[in-house]
Write a structure and sequence with these properties.
Layout: H1 8-22, E1 25-30, E2 38-44, E3 49-58, E4 64-74, E5 81-92, E6 97-106, H2 107-116, E7 121-133, E8 138-139
Parallel strand pairs: 1-7
Antiparallel strand pairs: 2-3, 3-6, 4-5, 4-7, 7-8
Length: 151
């Protein structure tokens, strides 16, 4: 008959395994409003940021001068919370595509928000809040969507 002997190292490994199993998982994704003049794609992560770089495509007929980007976190049990926001100057001609480093959604901060909500999985979403055109006009995304009832 064998006995299980718990050594200091064995106990440490067991505790480490429990901690890793409880660590928050973050899912980074983008969301695009149907009338948004910019398509955001190909998000990449770094060791510090959930959104290190992104690809932007101008789908409008006007030159874009800047974008206001917003990042929210959703844990499923409360309203989305803004975790980051930034105005990004960008010169994007109609139909042009560019890849840029944006350094949004600190991994450490996002994990802390998820931990505070006591959720194991959290969705971190980036979207274009507004776009400034070179002619001085702006898209805000607050116009009603077609075929969607409003109240």
């Amino acid at each position: 008959m064998r006995r299980f002997v718990c050594t200091g190292l064995g106990l440490l490994l067991l505790l480490l395994g429990c901690l890793l199993a409880r660590e928050q998982r973050l899912v980074f994704t983008t969301r695009t409003h149907p009338s948004c003049p910019v398509l955001v794609s190909s998000p990449s992560e770094s060791k510090d940021f959930g959104f290190h770089s992104l690809t932007f495509r101008n789908d409008s007929r006007k030159t874009i001068a800047a974008l206001q980007l917003k990042v929210t976190i959703s844990t499923g049990n409360a309203q989305d919370e803004v975790v980051d926001s930034r105005r990004v100057p960008i010169a994007l001609e109609p139909g042009e595509t560019k890849r840029m480093e944006v350094h949004l959604a600190s991994l450490q901060g996002s994990k802390q928000k998820a931990r505070a909500s006591r959720q194991e999985i959290a969705s971190v979403m980036l979207f274009v809040e507004s776009a400034e055109f070179s002619d001085g006009t702006q898209w805000n995304g607050d116009e009603p969507q077609l075929d969607v009832p409003t109240r």
